[in-house]
Amino acid sequence: MTTVVLFYLFAVVLLGAGLATITAKNPVHAALFLMLAFFSGACLWMLMKAEFLAVALVLIYVGAVMVLFLFVVMMLDVNFEELRKGFWKHVPLAVTVAIIMAVEMGLILHSRAAEVVVGGLPEQAAGYNNAKALGYLIYTQYFLPFQLSAALLLVGMIAAIALTIRKRKNTKYINPAVQIATKREDRVRIVKMAAEARPTVGEVVEEQPKA
Amino acid sequence: MTWTSLNAGAATPEIFLLIAVCAVLLIDLFVSDAKRHVTYLLTLGALAVTACLLVNGLAQPPQLAFSGMFVQDPLAGVAKLAMVLGAALVFIYGRAYAEARGLFRGELFTLSLFSLLGMMVMASAMNFVTLYVGLELQSLAMYALIALNRDNVQSSEASMKYFVLGALASGLLLYGMSMVYGASQSLDVLTIAHNITAGGANRVLSVFGLVFIVVGIGFKLGAVPFHMWMPDVYQGAPTPVAQLIGTSSKVAAFVFILRILAESLQGFAPDWSQMLMLMAVLSLALGNITAIAQSNIKRMFAFSAIAHMGFVLLGIMVGNPYGYGAAFFYSITYLLTSAAGFGLIMLMSRAGFEADRIDDFKGLNQRSPWFAFMMLIVMFSMAGVPVFVGFFAKLAILKAVVSMGLTWLAVYGVLMSLIGGFYYLRVVKVMYFDEAEDTHPIVAGIDARAILSVNCLLLLVLGLMPDRLMYLVTAAITHSIVQM
Questions:
Q1: How many CB atoms lie within 10 A of CB B200?
Q2: Which residues of chain B lie closer than 8 angstroms to A148, CB-CB?
Q3: Residue B125: strand, helix, or coil
Q4: CA distance linking residue B60 with residue B54, whole number of Å
Q5: B375 near B343, Cβ under 8 Å?
Q6: What is the rounded CA–CA span in Å between residue B77 and residue B86?
Q7: Contacts of B142 (CB under 8 A, 6+ apart)
Q8: Residue pair B305/B247 in contact by the 8 Å Cβ criterion
Q9: In terms of CA atoms, which chain B residue is nearest residue A159?
Q10: A8, B392, B409, B469: which has the fewest Cβ within 10 Å?
């Protein structure tokens, strides 16, 4: 019973936070609401006894990704008001469509519907380790998708670099390799020349006529 | 897990391709811009070896690998061969084009190869997780490829549109998959099919999920009403990238649909058949009618692609091996036709000039009678004029539709193709009966010219004897898809 109450509590918070993310006027607030949504999601996982996933979500998304995201939002000088101008204009239509869809979905799933098998979670044996079970599955049954996800991340990296790296022609940039490989000949020039006669003391130096 | 249940040998082409992409990525770092053709040759070499490995795998009986996540069967084998061929044509036709526009960089090759890897995984996936990861690998590389020409506003806009809509479609697909998972308690394609026939799946929930899956699929294929991204992406993307989207990625989407609808959700065929029919009817009408109004040939190709995908959907909708075979034949011949079409656009383009308006083809017959004839073959094949391969592709689909008792639908398809004939023939008219405005000679390497000519003549040869390819394709389908 407590689990059910907690589930609905977290689910409501999750949905509310998700809605607030897209409606908040201030982008920093939106990012913070997104964090709340992630956190509620993590709590839902916790209820399903997936502790490792829940902790990973909080650590990685809330702790690292969203903080980075907040920095970006604060650094970028984007006029978000300008971007969101059309938003409220379309809200009535969007809300109407959303309500119709929600009602339709509710009707379908509620009618003779979904006698989904609601079985409780299986009891785990003593000494069951969530992270260990996950790791075992990833490296056995889900080995292929796991490796492909690695390729996916590599693609993300290549794409980000390909789309953003710019070599400016006017940067004052030093090539360390060239710098280290420099020889004396590149920097010092020894010039052979005949010794010049210097005027000795007592000799009369002709003065330039003053203009 | 033991080594036998891993059975990694079944995925040799994919494993080789992944290693080859990483090698190309590293070698490209140490290659100067002047010697970029080294990367180009390495890429083509990698594709050639992958193709050889695929041919080698065709002879083996179907087998599962990676604990049932991956399957190597004739359907996947033939489809992957077509995709590899499509990607090779992209590089061959696109080389001069990319060089002239500063796109001839390592990323073009590595991202395209990664996209190809994603498509190959999509074709061989036997589990919803693998299907989804393959799809994402293909799409993510594609988003970046479209925006590769980053100083071009049109490209960036196209990429952004594709990205936002693609993310939405992925979300819908995933939602649908989670519903099916909830109903059938499995993510494995064969287990889902088994649970459905055994009556162990909740029908309402499954069909509810099915709607979302079909929406996601419709987006990936570019069928109406989920086609909005197609014209902008075709027009905005660099032409080689548009060619990759219009050729290999369509075949991948076709096999992806078969894996989900025909293999795992076979039990709900009456339900998804209706949805596909609706999308096909709309796609045929909108694609063909809107294409008439286009003056940009890449946009025209986009709308014509929508109409062609309508035909593919008609074939899948039939829901038996004849229909699947006809649709598979259609996808592969469409790959060849569309590759030749994009190849000709790039052949006509040169540095600082993009031959993407229909007017740019004016009087092509005076400038180059040979390539005017090639374009004529491509246009006739797309329009479905007899003796060209496009005719037999359409005929096979219509035969399958009629055999299902839907004669009105076949008549409708023919009528829509007739409307489509107008804009294809207009290009032919412009080439042969108008005065040339542009008198520049065609600059293209001998390799692109030769391969392009072979590609176009193949459309004629396949049209004269379509039975070999038809047999191969039908055999691949019947040996791969298990009828429940």
A1: 15
A2: 121, 130, 133-134, 137
A3: strand
A4: 10
A5: no
A6: 14
A7: B115, B162, B241, B244, B245, B249
A8: no
A9: B144
A10: A8
Closest by Cβ to B133, choosing from A141, A152, A158 = A152
Element spanning B194, H or E: helix B189-197
Q: Does A143 contact B205 at a Cβ distance shorter than 8 Å?
A: no
- Position B484 in a domain: no
What CA–CA distance (Å, rounded) separates B247 from B4?
Answer: 35
Tokens of B317: 């909708």
Residues on chain B touching A112 (C-beta within 8 angstroms):
204
Smallest CA–CA distance from B206 into chain A, residue: A114
The architecture in CATH of the region A7-80 reads Up-down Bundle (1.20)
Place of tokens 């790039």: B346
Q: Do B137 and A143 touch (CB under 8 A)?
A: no
Task: Write the single-letter amino acid at A188.
Answer: V
B483 falls within a domain: no
The pLDDT of residue B110: 95
Q: What is the DSSP string of A180-191?
A: HT--HHHH----
CA distance B59 to chain A (A): 24
- What is the C-alpha separation between B208 and B144, in angstroms, rounded? 33
Task: Give the pLDDT of residue B484.
Answer: 47
Residue of A nearest to B142 (CA): A159
CA dist A15 and A88 (Å) reads 20
pLDDT score of B2: 61
Q: For residue B350, give the 3-state DSSP assignment.
A: strand
Instruction: Please say whether the beta carbons of B116 and B18 come within 8 A.
Output: no
3-class state of residue B71 by DSSP: strand
Q: Which pair of structure tokens corresponds to residue B285?
A: 């009408």
User: Which residues in chain A have Cβ-Cβ distances shorter than 8 Å to B183?
Assistant: 116
Residue of A148, A152, A161 to mutate, testing the B interface (most B Cβ within 10 Å of its Cβ): A148
Q: How many structural domains comprise chain B?
A: 1
Q: Which helix (H) or strand (E) holds B63?
A: strand B63-65
- A155 and B140 within 8 Å at the Cβ level: the answer is yes
Q: DSSP of B469-484, one letter per residue?
A: HHHHHHHHHHHHSPP-
pLDDT digits 0-9 by tens, B30-88: 988 888 899 999 999 999 999 999 999 888 888 899 988 999 999 999 999 999 999 99
Q: CB–CB of B90/B451 below 8 Å? A: no
Q: Give the structural domain span for B370.
A: 3-478
Nearest to B402 by CA among B393, B391, B411, B392: B411
Residues lower than pLDDT 70 in chain B: 1-4, 482-484
What value does the CA radius of gyration of chain B take, rounded to a whole number of Å?
21
| Cα separation, B120 vs B270, whole angstroms | 29
Percent helix, strand, coil in chain A (nearest 5)? Answer: 65, 0, 35
pLDDT, tens digit, for every residue of B254-285? 999 999 999 999 889 999 999 999 999 999 99
Residues of chain A with pLDDT under 50: 113
Residues in A 111-150 with any Cβ partner in B closer than 8 A: 111-117, 140-145, 148-149
For residue B388, give Cα distances in angstroms to A209, B156, B263, B393, B457: 98, 37, 32, 9, 10
Mark yes or no for CB contact A144/B141 under 8 Å. Answer: no
pLDDT of residue A208: 63
Per-residue DSSP letter, A126: T
Residue B473, domain member (yes or no): yes
C-alpha distances (whole Å) from B152 to each of B44, B144, B146, B158, B179 are 28, 13, 10, 10, 41
Does a cis peptide bond (omega within 30 degrees of 0) precede residue B225?
yes
> Is B204's CB within 8 Å of A162's CB?
no
Ordered by start, the domain boundaries in chain A are 7-80, 130-173
